[in-house]
Amino acid sequence: MKTWKWGSRFLIAVCLPLFAVFSGQAGAQASKERTASVPPLDFLHIMQPIPASAAFHDPGYFVWCGALIKGGDGKYHLFYSRWKVIDGFESWVTRSEVAHAIGSSPEGPFVFHDLALPARGKEFWDGMVTHNPTIHRFGRKYYLYYMGNRGNGVVMSTLNWDHRNNQRIGVAVADNPNGPWKRLDTPLIDVSADANAPDALCVSNPSITQGSDGRFRLLYKAVGKQKPLPGGGPVVHLMATSDSPTGPFRKNLTPMFTFQNLAFPFEDPYLWFDAKRDTYFVIMKEMAGIISGTGHFSLVLFQSHDTVTWEKAEHPLVSTLELHWKEMPLQAVRRLERPQLMFDATGKPIVLLVAIDDGSAETYNVRIPLSEENPKERNL
After folding, report:
1. Shortest CA distance to 172 belongs to which of 193, 196, 145, 201?
2. Quick check: bond before 248 cis, omega within 30?
3. Which residue would you say has higher pLDDT here, 226 or 16?
4. Structurally, how many domains does the chain consist of?
5. Whole-structure pTM value
6. Of 16, 40, 48, 223, which residue is most buried, by most CB within 10 angstroms?
7. How far is CA 359 from CA 95, 186, 222, 355, 356, in A?
8. Residue 120's CATH number
9. What InterPro entries does the record tag this protein with (predicted)?
10. How, if at all, do strands 322-323 and 331-332 pair?
């Protein structure tokens, strides 16, 4: 999470460079041929009006992130990040905890149930903060991936760099979404020991999927030490692979999703494999709105057949900074981030989850219904 401001003159300067990892024309043509029998994904087309019950608030807390899964109990389990409003928004990096709410349908309402990943002591790598949850079922077990950190514990009105630079990625495992969750004593994805590596400073924003080959691919946000500390940079994304959801993961240290002359183009990736289209997709938050053409924060879609070479999807714009409510007027918001999806039993996306800051006292999670059977006209 980061607040980013863009000047119009700077936008003009960065519109010209090509996206660093897009495939060439031959790769794009092969992609089209392989998916010609299936309509391309178009989130603006399949998004449905949002019922009021699909907004989740936890009174007295900032709510961020949001990952949803259906359990064997027939209930829907929402995992989210929360921290006290009294501590200020930037205290996500020093006070966040992954909480768990339960509802009877994806639209809600949801009710707080317990803390899935509470603080457990500074002696642990993730002992003071848990954040960025994403939930999956692989085989008979549930896997809750997240960012954890520890540090000096000082709550600040600005970002606490000690905690930020201790961000690492972990996973907790349980037999059902109610836990108990077994956490690891070491990170699943740690920073690289090489000071010149693109993930030498910190890692966060994990997203994982299992491909048709059975292997697990984990995409994550990474920060290097090439730029001045404590902030470091640039901010890039890296892919790691494993034969097991609990690792060990082998990193590919070639940065993905980069723009020339732009130190922080994207964050908040959500990666999945679409078996029907035989394609990997990623939704990301775009900082400058270059791919989307909006000129500001937006969610955009990329696709790949190997998770190495990526191209923007045929319909790259997923969402602007607007919420289309069923019973309320169109709502413009300040931030719409942390995209995640929930799928039905056939692998079709049925809910898009996003974190919302609309300028009010508390932030919250919204679950946007999706329906490929009941598409609406594109309205840009």
Report:
1. 145
2. yes
3. 226
4. 1
5. 0.90
6. 223
7. 21, 37, 28, 13, 9
8. 2.115.10.20
9. Glyco_hydro_beta-prop_sf (IPR023296)
10. antiparallel
Q: Dump pLDDT digits (tens) for 129-171.
A: 999 999 999 999 999 999 999 999 999 999 999 999 999 999 9
Do the domain assignments include residue 99? yes
Comparing CA positions, the residue from 341, 380, 333 lying closest to residue 360 is 333
Q: Which domain holds residue 238?
A: 27-42+57-322
Any domain includes 371: no
Asked, for residue 353, whether it belongs to a domain, the answer is no
Pair 241, 219: CB distance under 8 Å: no
The three-class DSSP label of residue 25 is helix
Distance of CA 379 to the CA centre of its chain: 25
Give first-to-last CA distance, the chain, whole Å: 26
Compute the distance between CA of residue 60 and CA of residue 305 in angstroms, rounded to an integer: 44
Q: 31: which 2 tokens?
A: 């992609």
SS3 category, 87: helix
